[in-house]
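Entry: Pimeloyl-ACP methyl ester carboxylesterase
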Amino acid sequence: MANFLLIHGSCHGAWCWRDVLPRLNARGHAARAIDLPSHGHDVTPVEEVTLDLYARAIVEALEGPTIVVGHSMAGFPITAAAELAPEKIARLVYLCAYVPRPGKSLVDLRLEAPRQPLMKAVVKSAGGKSFTIDPAQAPDVFYHDCPAEAVEYAGQRLCPQAILPQATPLALNRAPSVPRSYIICNDDRTIPPEYQRTMTEDWPAEDVFEMYASHSPFFSQPGKLAEILFQIAERP
């Protein structure tokens, strides 16, 4: 059986995996989720958060060879963790996530995409070091196909997102040695699905999966997402 570590995206926390974790554990896998620094129950001031701090939090949470799943912006932290400790990671799984390229930041990749659907909902802090999501627009950009209960649950828990980790380029030296898979969400209103395909156009077909889902399949289709993760766990 596999070890899974699930990493949330911008403004979220470990809480977003509430419907996926029990499904993974019920099949005998060991699945956990953590709050990145300044998210969820972590009390790190948002102004102190860096990409390296994210990466080190992930590495510290690894217990034996682990399949590390990163949602959305977490594509960068999980890759940075693989730079620090590739020997501890069995596979990286990018769930509708940004896939780092050498010398590029997440902001750089976002600007490369053909559309910027999330930006209409972004509200920057007065100091310019973090942003939040306009509560009125969060359901449309993140959760448009999710149950009403889940939308309310998430809306009560969204937190500020540090900008510095997303503006930090990432060198890639050790991470490319780690096997990787990608899950495209075809109804995503945050990261355009066509850009998700661009990021994976040269990947082996067997390492790319697709769901007709929003940016939050952990709420809209947790069973389907878990099934794909089961398939990924069986990859060599």
